[in-house]
Amino acid sequence: MLHPISISDLKFNPFDLIGKDWYLVTSGTPDNYNTMTASWGTMGIFWGKPVVNTFIRPQRYTHEFIEKNDLYTISFFHKDMRPALQLCGSKSGRDIDKAAATGLKPMAVEGTTTFEQARLVLVCKKLYDYHIDPAHFIGSAKELDQKWYPQKDYHHCYFGEIIAVYSE
Which positions carry the signal peptide feature in this UniProt record (predicted)? Predict the structure, then answer.
């Protein structure tokens, strides 16, 4: 069962939490939402606020929901949920009901959606967004354009202020 905690009580390695454990980014209401798995992102302080940067390609169905809503969640799970995260990262919510396919149970939190099975949830309010611009790759980093964007489908980045935290 999730309960609110103070952001100052968070203790984790963001490199493991984001890059190894993965997360679901979700936006919308429990009756009309989409979620997708992500393993890219950053956390820190920006403009004096605790923020998460989330990267979503514009063709992803979740992008439509993030664009329409001011709030979204970043939800982390225990390892036994890895198959659900794999499905949520490989299938589109346009084509399947991800909750039905995985057993995820959507729940309302702070005006947006997360899942009952989450072990940690960051509720985020959009502050700023931008698109990755290939003109801004510097020096040898220009190789990243070819490696990660052969289709030229550059990520849209959202700065989200963490406005609430929930934990088990």
Answer: none
pTM: 0.95
CA distance 25 to 30: 14
Work out the percent of the chain whose per-residue pLDDT is above 70.
100
Inter-CA distances, 154 with 8, 103, 162, Å: 33, 31, 24
Residue 38 to residue 124: CA distance in whole angstroms: 15
Residue pointed to by tokens 């390695």: 13
Residue 116's contacts (CB-CB under 8 Å, 6 or more residues apart) are 2, 104, 105, 106, 107
CB contact at 8 A, 86 and 37: yes
Residue 16 pLDDT class (50, 70, 90 cuts):
very high
Q: Which two tokens stand for residue 114?
A: 């997360």
Helix (H) or strand (E) holding 96, with range, is none
Contact by Cβ (8 Å): 166, 2: yes
Tokens 């190894």 correspond to: 20
Q: What are residue 3's phi and psi, to 5 degrees?
A: -140, 150
